[in-house]
């Protein structure tokens, strides 16, 4: 699929219509952006917890954690064993508990409890890579950015939108090619699409209407 403006619009419109038709576009993005006050700290910690675990486990761990600790100050002072118990569903809970407590301390002490809106400052935090930083910008602040996870990376390459080896390379390529007005939608939509249809193993190509312009399908 060539990255013409018409094809970009076609891709976003198709993905939106797919989930609107299912009544399932009440997505993480919409949930975060409509959340009262919007909480970048919750997004930051939740995204760190999401590393190497399933979405439903991340959700459970994040809900457990923020039911007990409401902000960076409380989490920074939290008991490490209690934090481990609360986030256990997310896996690797010993390591993650130490990391999120450390991050909470930095946010509390250096930034007076407020998560920075700057990419470089976010990347300087422990356990924060480009995906996490971009998620904070998008879901925490509503700032157009380009979070790229395994779904976005895989689908972008399958469709032929990019030809890259790593998610960071995919982010760079998409930022250069994709119109900025689509940035807020593309991560969430591609993640849903990658979970439901364009799966890593056994993709449901027969259910996809993008096959006529899909490099992966044409190679089968």
What can you see in these coordinates?
The chain is an all-alpha fold. The longest helix is centred in the middle third of the chain and has 18 residues.
CATH topology of the largest domain: Endonuclease III, domain 1
> What percent of residues adopt helix (DSSP H or I)?
55-70%
The major β-sheet equals: none
Count helical runs: 13
CATH class of the largest domain: Mainly Alpha
Oligomer: single chain
Spell out the CATH superfamily of the largest domain.
Hypothetical protein, domain 2
Q: Please tell me what the overall shape is.
A: elongated
Number of domains: 2
What amount of the residues lies in strands? under 5%
Indicate the mean pLDDT.
Answer: 89
Please give the alpha-carbon distance between the first and last residues.
Answer: 16 Å
Structural class, from helix and strand content? Answer: mainly alpha
- The total beta strand count reads 0
Please write the string of helix (H) and strand (E) elements: HHHHHHHHHHHHH
């Amino acid at each position: 699929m060539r990255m013409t403006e018409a094809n970009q619009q076609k891709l976003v419109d198709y993905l939106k219509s797919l989930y609107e038709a299912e009544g399932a576009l009440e997505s993480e993005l919409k949930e975060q952006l409509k959340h009262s006050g919007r909480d970048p700290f919750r997004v930051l910690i939740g995204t760190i917890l999401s590393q190497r675990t399933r979405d439903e486990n991340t959700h459970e761990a994040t809900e457990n954690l923020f039911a007990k600790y409401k902000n960076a100050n409380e989490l920074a002072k939290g008991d490490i064993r209690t934090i481990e118990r609360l986030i256990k569903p997310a896996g690797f809970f010993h390591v993650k508990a130490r990391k999120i407590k450390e991050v909470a301390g930095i946010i509390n002490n250096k930034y007076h409890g407020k998560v920075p809106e700057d990419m470089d400052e976010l990347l300087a935090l422990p356990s924060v890579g480009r995906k996490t930083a971009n998620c904070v910008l998008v879901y925490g602040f509503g700032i157009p950015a380009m979070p790229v996870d395994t779904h976005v990376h895989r689908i972008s390459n399958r469709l032929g939108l990019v030809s890259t080896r790593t998610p960071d390379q995919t982010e760079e390529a998409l930022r250069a090619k994709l119109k900025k007005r689509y940035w807020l939608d593309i991560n969430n939509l591609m993640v849903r699409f990658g979970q439901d249809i364009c799966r890593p193993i056994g993709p449901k190509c027969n259910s996809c209407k993008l096959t006529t312009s899909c490099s992966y399908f044409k190679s089968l």
